[in-house]
Structures are given as C-alpha cells and as structure tokens.
C-alpha cells in the first residue's frame, strides 16, 4: 500500500525552459539539475522533470499537478497571467474548492487549488 507521494515525474521537451517555468514562474526551489533529470521542492514534495527521449512524441493526458496558491486564488491567477501563463479555463467553483487550470511550458496539465471560502 502507498503511504504518501514520494515524487511527481513530469515529462519535459526542453529542460531549461521547464526549469525556468517551475523555478522562476511558479517559484519552486531548485534542488538539482541535469540535462536528463531535475528536481524541485514543492513544499516538501519532489517534482522531477524527466527529459523525454528524442523519439518520444508528446501526448496530452497523464497526471495533473495541483498547487496551493500562496495567497488569494484570484490574485495568484492574475500574477501568473502577468508572467505570461495561459489558463486553459476559467476558475471553477465547487463545494469542495476552487480550481484554475493551466499548462506548463511542456504542455503538462497543472492547476491552482483553493479550499472553499468560509
């Protein structure tokens, strides 16, 4: 049985571009880097950037990484938009929280998640 998440692997086409996005745009702390594998700290969770092999073709689908915004969700969405991040939909509101979907520079699905407002 699983006792938690050890890391999340994200396939990337361009390691430098992906590192720039996760480090500079999202503000995650870089732990290690190489052309094939890089790691970032997302509040105690390791996000591993895994270089695609030259023969692999990018495909949609796969895991989605949800990030907790540092502050108000609406303000964080605007801050990311100001950095050039394109959101793939509007903020969705549910009984269990709010989601704002976007993609990284490599086409992977990401989202900001905020618990319900009290």
Automatic annotation (TrEMBL):
<dbReference type="Pfam" id="PF00903">
    <property type="entry name" value="Glyoxalase"/>
</dbReference>
<dbReference type="InterPro" id="IPR029068">
    <property type="entry name" value="Glyas_Bleomycin-R_OHBP_Dase"/>
</dbReference>
<dbReference type="InterPro" id="IPR004360">
    <property type="entry name" value="Glyas_Fos-R_dOase_dom"/>
</dbReference>
<dbReference type="InterPro" id="IPR052164">
    <property type="entry name" value="Anthracycline_SecMetBiosynth"/>
</dbReference>
<feature type="domain" description="VOC">
    <location>
        <begin position="4"/>
        <end position="115"/>
    </location>
</feature>
<dbReference type="InterPro" id="IPR037523">
    <property type="entry name" value="VOC_core"/>
</dbReference>
<protein>
    <recommendedName>
        <fullName>VOC domain-containing protein</fullName>
    </recommendedName>
</protein>
């Amino acid at each position: 049985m699983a006792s938690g998440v050890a890391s999340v692997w994200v396939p990337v086409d361009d390691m430098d571009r992906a590192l720039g996005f996760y480090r500079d745009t999202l503000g995650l702390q870089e732990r290690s880097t190489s052309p094939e594998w890089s790691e970032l700290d997302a509040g105690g969770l390791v996000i591993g950037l895994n270089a695609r092999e030259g023969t692999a073709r990018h495909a949609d689908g796969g895991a989605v990484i949800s990030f907790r915004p540092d502050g108000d969700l609406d303000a964080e969405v605007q801050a990311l938009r100001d950095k050039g991040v394109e959101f793939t939909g509007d903020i969705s509101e549910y009984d269990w929280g709010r989601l704002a979907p976007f993609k990284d520079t490599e086409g992977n699905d990401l989202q900001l998640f905020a618990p319900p407002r009290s």
